[in-house]
Amino acid sequence: MKYNRVLLKLSGESLMGQQSYGIDPKMLAQYAADIKAVVERGVQVGIVIGGGNIFRGLTGAASGMDRVQGDYMGMMATLINSMALQAELEKQGLKTELLAGMAIEPICKAMSRRRAVEAMEAGRVVIIGGGTGNPFFTTDTASTLRAVEVQADVILKGTRVDGVYTADPEKDPTATKYERLGYSEALEKKLKIMDLTAFALAESNSLPIYVFDMNRPGNLLRVVEGEDVGTLID
Question: Looking at the 3D structure of the chain, how many domains does it have?
Answer without folding.
Answer: 1
